[in-house]
UniProtKB/TrEMBL annotation:
It comes from the Bacteria. One of its GO terms (molecular function) is ATP binding. Residues 4-249 form the ABC transporter domain. Keywords: ATP-binding, Nucleotide-binding, Transport. Residues 256-275 are annotated as: Disordered. The keyword ATP-binding applies. Belongs to the ABC transporter superfamily. This is ATP-binding cassette domain-containing protein. Signal peptide: none annotated. The keyword Protein transport does not apply.
C-alpha cells in the first residue's frame, strides 16, 4: 500500500455570476506517492498542480474521487480529525518571504507546531536546535527574526517548521522557484539529505522540469487538469511518450546554445506536426 493514494480526483471551483456553473479544474486525477518516495508533479501554470496539493492538505474539498493517506480516506475529514493529521502531513510553500510570521523569532516559529502537539517548552527548545542543525542553520538563529535571513535561509526555516512534528509526507509547492539558481540547488540537496535521513515522502510541485528531474523518483505530468503521463523520472524527463511532455521538455532551457538551437528546431517540428 502506498502512503498517499489519489483516485479519480475531481475538483471544481465556483464561478461568479448568477447561475454560473462551477468550473472543473481536475478531471479525475489518479496517482500515488510511496513511502520515502518523491513524486514530482510538473505542468504549465494553471494546469492544476497546486489544486492537487490543496486537496491533499484539506484546503479544498474535492467534488469527486478519493484521497487515502496511510490507508485512511481523508478527503472529507473536518475539524479535530483533520487537525490530527497535521503531524503526519505538512507543507512547504513557494514564498519564503510571506510564509513566516515576521513578528515571531525563528525559535518561536519552530516551537509552535511542537507545543501545539503537546511538547513542553523545554523539550521544544531542544528539538528546535536539532531542527536548525538538520537544515544547516546556526543555533543562534533561534533568537533572530525572519527579516534577518536571506530567501534561501528562510526557506530552510520553512523546511524545519514542516519537519518539526515528524511528518510522513510533505507537500512541497514550488519551494525553490522564488530562489536564485545556486540557492535552488542547495535547497534541493537539503530536501534530498532530509529524505535520506528521515524517510519522509514528498509530493513535489514545480513548473520546472529540471528541478523535477533532480529531485523526483517518479514524475506525473499534468496538462489542463489531466495527468497525461506518469513514470520514473529519468524516463519521463528524457524520453517522454506524451506530446505535451515532449513540448515541455523542448521548452526547458539548456546552457549550451547549440543544443538550445537544436531544441528550438525540434520544438518547431513537433508543433508543425501537431498543427
Ligand atoms: N480559489 C480559486 N477559485 C477559482 N479558481 C481557482 C482558484 N484557485 C485556482 N483556480 C484556477 O484553477 C486553475 C488551476 O490553478 P492551480 O493554482 O492549481 O494551477 P497550477 O498548475 O498550480 O498553476 P501555477 O503554477 O501558476 O500555480 C487555474 O485556472 C486557476 O485560475
Amino acid at each position: 500500500m502506498s502512503l498517499l493514494e489519489i483516485e479519480d480526483l475531481r475538483v471544481s471551483y465556483p464561478v461568479k455570476g448568477f447561475r454560473a456553473k462551477p468550473i472543473e479544474i481536475l478531471h479525475g486525477v489518479s496517482m500515488e506517492v510511496g513511502h520515502g518516495e518523491t513524486m514530482g508533479l510538473v505542468g504549465e501554470s494553471g494546469s492544476g498542480k497546486t489544486t492537487i496539493g490543496r486537496a491533499v492538505l484539506g484546503l479544498v474539498r474535492p467534488s469527486g474521487g478519493s484521497i487515502r493517506f496511510a490507508g485512511q480516506e481523508i478527503s472529507s475529514l473536518k475539524g479535530a480529525e483533520r487537525r490530527g493529521l497535521a503531524s503526519h502531513l505538512q507543507v512547504v510553500f513557494q514564498d519564503p518571504y510571506t510564509s513566516l510570521n515576521p513578528s515571531m523569532t525563528i525559535g518561536d516559529i519552530l516551537s509552535e507546531p511542537l507545543i501545539v502537539h503537546g511538547a513542553s517548552s523545554g523539550h521544544a527548545r531542544g528539538r528546535v536546535r536539532t531542527l536548525l542543525d538538520q537544515v544547516g542553520l546556526p543555533s543562534d538563529s533561534i533568537d533572530r527574526m525572519p527579516r534577518e535571513f536571506s530567501g534561501g535561509q528562510r526557506q530552510r526555516v520553512a523546511i524545519a517548521r514542516a519537519l518539526a512534528p515528524g511528518p510522513k509526507l510533505i507537500v512541497c509547492d514550488e519551494p525553490v522557484s522564488a530562489l536564485d539558481l545556486s540557492t535552488q540547488a542547495r535547497v534541493l540537496d537539503l530536501f534530498l539529505d532530509i529524505q535520506r535521513e528521515t524517510g519522509v515522502s514528498y509530493l513535489f510541485i514545480s513548473h520546472d522540469l529540471g528541478v523535477i528531474r533532480h529531485i523526483s523518483h517518479r514524475v506525473g505530468v499534468l496538462y489542463r487538469g489531466d495527468l497525461v503521463e506518469t513514470g520514473p523520472a529519468p524516463q519521463v524527463t528524457s524520453t517522454p511518450e506524451h506530446d505535451y511532455t515532449k513540448r515541455l521538455l523542448l521548452a526547458s532551457p539548456v546552457a549550451d546554445p547549440v543544443k538550445q538551437k537544436e531544441k528550438r528546431q525540434k520544438r518547431r517540428e513537433l508543433l508543425a506536426a501537431n498543427a
